[in-house]
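Operator note (shift B, R.M.): manual run for Arginine decarboxylase requested after the automated queue skipped it. Running by hand, logging everything below so the morning shift can see what happened. Input copied straight from the record, untouched. If output looks odd, do not overwrite the archive copy; leave it for review.
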Amino acid sequence: MQYSGKNPVCFHMPGHKLGNDPYIPYGDKLYLMDVTEVPGLDNLHQPSGVIKEAQELAAKAFGADYTFFLVNGSTCGIHAAIMSVCKRGDKLIVARDCHMAAINGMMLAGVEPVYIKPEFDHSFKIPSVLKCEHIEKALTENSDAVGVYITRPNYYGVCSDIEEISNLVHSYGKVLIVDEAHGAHFNFSDKLPPGALEFDSDICIQSAHKTLPALGQGAYLHVKGTRADVEKVRYSLNILQTSSPSYLVMAFLDISRAIMEKEGREILESLLEDIEKFHDSISYNTRFRMLSKDNFKSGDLDRTRLVINTKSYGLTGFEIENILRSRYNIQVEMADLYNIVCIVTNANRGQDLEELKNALMDIHRDCKDSLPLPEIHIGAYEIPEQKVKLSELMHKSFRRIKLKEACGMVSRRMITPYPPGIPVICPGEVMTESSIEYIMGILESGGNVNGVYEGPEVEVLA
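Run finished. Output pasted below as returned.
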């Protein structure tokens, strides 16, 4: 209440932005919607009434054959997708820029990952697209893999070529799972990248709460075609989802679908016009660099995701985030060493972008004579050696040691800058000198890294 009482300008999730989306009904009646499985209100784990109807409406709106409501977030959907496609001991080809939920899902399912690296954009220092040639190499070298798991878009709004990837994966007879947590809005505008379901991804998971006016933890799992067994998906979800699902979360999944289906194209059209004006103003009047099609040729971009590079002002993204919050009451979604990232949704208005623009113009005036930020240890790094299988880690003995002393040791935990939750070190992998330098660089620059304790210390196998 202290945070929301400050009436901040929100460029972070959830997509309703503290309830500021004017299209949301029943905002003053939330307690009346917090109900349970009484007659007439159906049962998420065996729907036959209103929940069944709501899921069918969502499937139609998003272009799926089946849609399941998720009340435990996309994390639950990712776990269910992996568990429904893979048996213990199976191989799954996984893009390394996956969210930590995918690693945890493979650990729970006893899956052996085959990682493929996305490209790296050295200008913005961010992970970029997946190349089909790397996916095909993994498919040919691992013919026993059951499927391919990719993240699209990534946290920076970068989209790999889903048509090419889908055709390739299916030509090998494999299942394609797409973590589209940040792309639930794609289906509602021709000016945004195409959604994964448009090109027949078999399982697609979307976080409605990230870019639609849904409540936290609200997400969808979509199934299309017959390559993925929908009954196995259903069975996995029955195991993984809470037995007391939130009707508030489910109701807002339905509300979000309805808003986007009826008003989404018009809303996004207006929003994209405001974003275009913001891009032009910042690009012409400051030294901040905006990730755009003009300076990023590797793949498609989600234009509602603002990636603003801060390097030329001698300030890290972490420092700019703090300035925006403390001086201007603006909260961004995330920051890294060189960038800030803002999520713009239906609930943002032109005035929000105007306030962000004015704040960045102020910073430009204050820091216009500053020297650029020097190079920090960041870049594309090699995937470490997997010394211990994910399925063998849970009950291994471990000890905690200083991060700087961990080179050559096997990590017990995932080490993940958060956000965005993309692992630097996965459980069972060997800590390398380059990865330790990378983690130290983030910590010393003010960033947060999950899996690193105060000290800094890490857990390694004994």
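Quick read of the result: The longest strand covers residues 66-70. Residues 141 and 349 are 49 Å apart (CA to CA).
Leaving this for review. - R.M.
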